[in-house]
Amino acid sequence: MVDTASRTTAKQSHARERSAETTTPKQTRTAASAPAPVANRDRDLTGANGSRVDIAALGRQLLGTWADIRIAARKRAANPELQRIDGQSMEEHRERVLGQLKLLVGDGAVHRAFPSSLGGHDDHGGNIAGFEELVLADPSLQIKAGVQWGLFGAAVLHLGTEYHHTTFLPDIMSLKVPGAFAMTETGHGSDVAAIGTTATYDEAKQQFVINTPFRGAWKDYLGNAAVHGTAAVVFAQLITKGVNHGVHAFYVPLRNTKGGFLKGIGGEDDGLKGGLNGIDNGRLHFTNVRVPRANLLNRYGSVAEDGTYSSPIASPGRRFFTMLGTLVQGRVSLDGAATNAAAMALAIAITYGNQRRQFNAGSDTDEEVLLDYQRHQRRLLPKLATTYAQIFAHDEFLVKFDAVFSGESDTDDDRQDLETMAAALKPLSTWHALETLQEAREASGGAGFLAENRMVGLRQDLDIYVTFEGDNNVLLQLVAKRLLTDYSKQFAKAGAGVMARYVVQQTADRAYHGTGLRRVAQTIADFGSTARSVTSLRDENTQRELLTDRVEEMIAEIAGRLREARKLPKAEAAAVFNRNQNELIEAARAHAELLQWEAFTRGLANTSDPGTKQVLTWMRDLFGLGLLEKHLAWYLIHGRLSPQRAQAVSAYIDRLVERLRPHAQDLVDAFGYAPEHLRAKIASGAEQQRQDEARAYYAAQRAAGTLPVPEKSKK
Amino acid sequence: MVDTASRTTAKQSHARERSAETTTPKQTRTAASAPAPVANRDRDLTGANGSRVDIAALGRQLLGTWADIRIAARKRAANPELQRIDGQSMEEHRERVLGQLKLLVGDGAVHRAFPSSLGGHDDHGGNIAGFEELVLADPSLQIKAGVQWGLFGAAVLHLGTEYHHTTFLPDIMSLKVPGAFAMTETGHGSDVAAIGTTATYDEAKQQFVINTPFRGAWKDYLGNAAVHGTAAVVFAQLITKGVNHGVHAFYVPLRNTKGGFLKGIGGEDDGLKGGLNGIDNGRLHFTNVRVPRANLLNRYGSVAEDGTYSSPIASPGRRFFTMLGTLVQGRVSLDGAATNAAAMALAIAITYGNQRRQFNAGSDTDEEVLLDYQRHQRRLLPKLATTYAQIFAHDEFLVKFDAVFSGESDTDDDRQDLETMAAALKPLSTWHALETLQEAREASGGAGFLAENRMVGLRQDLDIYVTFEGDNNVLLQLVAKRLLTDYSKQFAKAGAGVMARYVVQQTADRAYHGTGLRRVAQTIADFGSTARSVTSLRDENTQRELLTDRVEEMIAEIAGRLREARKLPKAEAAAVFNRNQNELIEAARAHAELLQWEAFTRGLANTSDPGTKQVLTWMRDLFGLGLLEKHLAWYLIHGRLSPQRAQAVSAYIDRLVERLRPHAQDLVDAFGYAPEHLRAKIASGAEQQRQDEARAYYAAQRAAGTLPVPEKSKK
């Protein structure tokens, strides 16, 4: 009974969006002529200043550079055959996802990044864009596809050469050979350089001998390793002529046609996980397993027949980071997929929050819609603003990635910038996805905890995104080190004179801020004038200046403290660095937040419809001021904001959420998810129907005079 | 292989704790004489000032008022028969937990709160203490037991009278009648007063007619409703003689002996949830279902044969809250269980963080132990301090609960205080459990995501704790309303003169703080003296004053803004209230944090061993300063802390985590969990063994001169 009702209302509630679709070819939805009965829809249409979002145009903008590919991928993700079935056992789920990978192959959906010569399209950005949308169907499908083609296949493509491409790629692309990406070990996750597995060259037999010297060097957490993988790209320390040339990748067959391990190979199933149970993660170990010399993926390092090592990159450190850098696409795609998941959660919770009523605060008869409560707005709308910032930042990130990988703009600096961007954006977006999924589930109460409403399942699957493909904290520390390097380079170029002046200036600056003198002046200027404070905070340049200033000041402060440590012995220098680690990571976060804010602001500049631009400006301000509010103590301590202005930050956020509230439904509708993507009963319109039925019941009783009199009013 | 190793090392790693146990009868562990080989154990024993924790004594203190009952309950929870098996299907898990409830009955473990006359012990505090420990075995077991005896049974006990006790309780206690607590409806969760189900008295037949008037009034999310429940306590609007007397509870049989619904009753399975899948939550609806007049649980409201309603409580509002107040024990037990779960997560992650090594920052050969990284300390130790605060606060809470329910101290004020405490503490501890489980899982990397390491499963189960038994945000709003009432009562008593003076004073105060004059003075006084700032922040009274001041000031400010709203029409008054909702909830949180800080401080006063007292003082300071750091912007804006002192807060927290780091293992060992409770492979000692093996391998190669030379050093 409920199901039928849900379906009907769901169709209707998306009607308005669909009518806008005559301009965008989203073939997943069918035409409908009924007007949209979504609660508060009427009120939604007229915001403050009469501004109104052009949902269709905004939707197109959000789809970004590879809009067509995303639309096609979403059409695919709407296919129930590719979607998760809740409650399947781990074994059933694993087999289902393997079958889904085969459907993707049949569909020609996963070869876009491979060379044209092998049937691909050499389209790196488009490949990732399409791949990210698989999260709408099932994150296990996304990640297992990522293991097969984005890691296993991509390693052969980017670390191998012609021989490997022609020999191995066709079967990888067709899924004839499902494979594992055997990098991580039980003992080493993010610290890949320290893995224990060795590949020692045997000149006599012209083979590499792959060996696991101890338990901690078992390969671990590898998708496809527990059951389906018949080969792997194995990362190991390449040893020849008694010299360790560092981590290299080798193509290693794992299992025979019956699924049994080949000689010298063993392993274990990682078993049940917190999520992503459609992937067969497992452990592998190697006891003197021999592979031909040619199985070294030798783009960045070769071993001649006689065991002589050679590499186009002289520095072992740079070589290592270059090899790892070719695998940055994993981080790129997680940023996009995590942002998609956050957007879905908000589309579900805001749709529900616009229909669900609870407690009658302002009326004797009608209860309030959840999203009319300030707290509810405060819980969801800032997260919506962050999601928008991430969407804009991600598209720029993907454009950058495409430029590097297509060779269009592929200098060392480009690659470094790309990696820094990846290390900055992936942590923020994956954490944001978890926080948003959780807040959305809590904002939907007990209903949010039911699997049928999607949020708990998505959260379980996305949990691991914050520690895989580089632990978020480790990545942010990389960003901070890059910022410190940039900072010191600035002075290396400038010479000692500039440095000395800078130090003086820093000190002067410290005294100035530290004793709060500038702040006092600001306080007096601001006195009694909240309006002026707000006007200034709304200003784009003020926001930029405040956000930029914080990154620079944090890095400058830390650099100052680390400067003396350079002369210390290694252990003591490490201790000084360690005492600044927490703040370093916070500085990296500040940098990443600034990247997102800049991208949002550029996106805003590209928005032409005036109503949409107005609403998006409020969203950008909400994002920017949200960052200021989060770090308000820093701004106060460093004299960048007077107490008066600081108070205006929170007050203005309150005003912004009130202004944005009528546009909330439009802003999530612009994500363009169809009911087949959200698949959440509470976002189907069923709640609206229940509310209407309950209100009609009481109204009819009241009209007929049959409603029992409350005891209280009787007295 | 790993399993055997894990078990051995697990035994050993708990040896030291066990040796301390000669004084505490925790029978779950066996004697051992080997010294503890836990990593860094040696360093752990000597903290700054040579202070050292007396683990056994601290462990006893943490067990609190009902230590013996907790120890017995933990012994029970160590029984594999009561523990969760990961990967079971929902159906299997449900049947397993039902079987476990029967084991508890056989064990005499669940009747403590029931009357002695029926075989119970009239022991309310002890009952909850034991119940909370069930979370160690399986949260589904805890909550299903809670549904049967803490909700269904407790409703009959507290809302019913003699007839109901003798008629229904024996079968409830024995589990002959598994039952549902049918309060929540699809349309109404936390707003119980607004439920739609009606119970209309039919004088002719002397029966109540239970009816579900529309879909939103279906009972929903009820444990035992989907499969096992054969009866329910149903909450419905009691209507007699055309008057609605508000929500009352009725005993209603649900199913026949074959498991089929009785006439007029229907329902649905809620299906898979985000966690707690050992409980069969479901929906129920009633179509004019008749029950005898005597089935009204009539302690607080009776209907005579002729339909005349009577109640010992004249006010319908007070009657409603009194009835609901008898069910406060759910919130009490969630506070304790959530704190247990946070403690388990920290015991796992800190043990692992003390053994796991990653990256070699300060040495060429050895990698760093995770817990030696500042960021790692910053992530886990403040959460440990909060967990300690919660343990102390919970014991006081439970003592209060026991005093009220035993009748020892059961005035209206006592009940109100108890409910406010429940509404304040339950939200903070349940949110803290989720945050801690997540941080602990992330701090354990990919290993934290494996089901075998417990944290993801616990987090999935505890997720719902933040919205059931009262949504956390709704509860905090209740606390805030109570604070506002207390605040206005203060002035009602004092009369108009005091009020006027207060307003003047408030205004003066605002100007004083608002323009930062006091802060400027403080800045100058503090100038250059971080040491003095720190000394003052370490002072107990300073912390108390700062925390108390914030609650009072926030409430005073909000009360000031709401004062004018009183005269407005209802809708407008509601709008003004709504504009302050977010800050109101934050004020309630501040109040709850103060309660926890006060309890921690009282606990500290009861600690006699000097070493333990020193370490616990650092922990309390870490908790207190953590609160200041979280709300630092408020203290700066309101002129309570100068920028100089504010900066000292974070600096001192950095020093505290460094000081506490050597005691981290002791502090989690004091929780007293045995390996049978933690059941996490990464906390079993297996990691230490892997690290030792890897280091021994490299050391041996180095000694033998067979370690391949790194390419870098060769150049």
UniProtKB/TrEMBL annotation, chains A, B:
SUPFAM superfamilies, sorted: Acyl-CoA dehydrogenase C-terminal domain-like, Acyl-CoA dehydrogenase NM domain-like
GO molecular function terms attached to this record: acyl-CoA oxidase activity
InterPro entries, alphabetized: ACOX_C_alpha1, Acyl-CoA_Oxase/DH_mid-dom, Acyl-CoA_Oxase/DH_mid-dom_sf, Acyl-CoA_oxidase, Acyl-CoA_oxidase_C, AcylCo_DH-like_C, AcylCoA_DH/oxidase_NM_dom_sf
UniProt entry tagged with the keyword Oxidoreductase: yes
Keywords: FAD, Flavoprotein, Oxidoreductase
Keyword DNA-binding belongs to the record: no
Region ranges (Disordered): 1-47
Documented EC number(s): 1.3.3.6
Cofactor list: FAD
Name of the featured protein: Acyl-CoA oxidase
